[in-house]
Amino acid sequence: MKQSHDLFETGLLRESARQRLTAELGSDTIQRLQQRSNIRGGWAVISCWLSIGLLLACSWFAIDLLSYWSTPIVLLCLLFLGGRILALAILTHEGAHRTLLANSRWNDLISHWLCAAPVYLDLAKYRYHHAQHHIHTGTEKDVDLPLIEGFPTTRPSLMRKFIRDLTGQTGVKSLIGLCLMNAEFIRWNVTGVVDKLNHADWHWYHRLRAFFVNSRRTLLFHAGFFAICFSLNLTVVFALWWAAYFFTYPFCIRVRAIAEHAVTERTGDMLRNTRTTRAGLLARALFAPCHVNFHIEHHALVSVPFWQLPELHKLMQEKNITPPPPSYWQVLKLAASAR
Question: DSSP per residue over 236-287, as a string?
Fold first, then answer.
């Protein structure tokens, strides 16, 4: 019988991944790993919001008690708050795969209102867009290629990207793009690509209506959030959320995107077009919430919920199916290795 290492030398293609992994790991194991959980998924959402609340509270108390001496504490909280906002985006991703909760109706309801709406994502549109990424990963048809084009780059170039993120330039550009997408000036995507929509017969009120219809959940969520903060005389908390959204969330997204697919091969083989990354405590807090760093495993079996991915990773490592994962620091060095 062939060893797993030999078996997977030919690659792990999307069309045959489930069949080959089932042969290696056993159908019972695959079935167990695919089980969803309302409790696990629900706790992931609750714990994310609890940590967001804690970070906002720490920032507010620091400002109230220490005045301008609170700046280092507030900046640190904003950095980790960016990671928690990314966690909401990852939970939206989980909901898009219908693996956040076992109950499909509650999966979409919770994903829409408590995960996607706060970060200005649309679950249905993201679900369609992200499906195209999985179908065409590593090929010229991959809709997420713009996120990783230009890598490897030089260290000064990568630093300039990070500076644009941390100074709010990326965040403002992203928000403007989302507003234009929801007003249907351009096609919806999460990569920053400008693909104009042809609505030659539309007037300004058609655009305005489209904007409010497509943005309704985000507008309602943040209107409620602002109303609560205002009524409690805590408008600074609302401002802190948006500060993290503009200044640290884009940085966390960029590192996550680089780790997953940058400087990988243009091929249909998931072992070569996708990367699993080793994540310590700090990386999990900032770039790899909800086990998103186990990305080869996710692409290989998209029906496996996030909390099962560490076990799938362990099993695939034991069978020598996947290579040893690099750290985030090693991936960033690779991404900045051009001369």
Answer: HHHHHHHHHHHHTHHHHHHHHHHHHHTT--SSSBHHHH----B--HHHHHHT
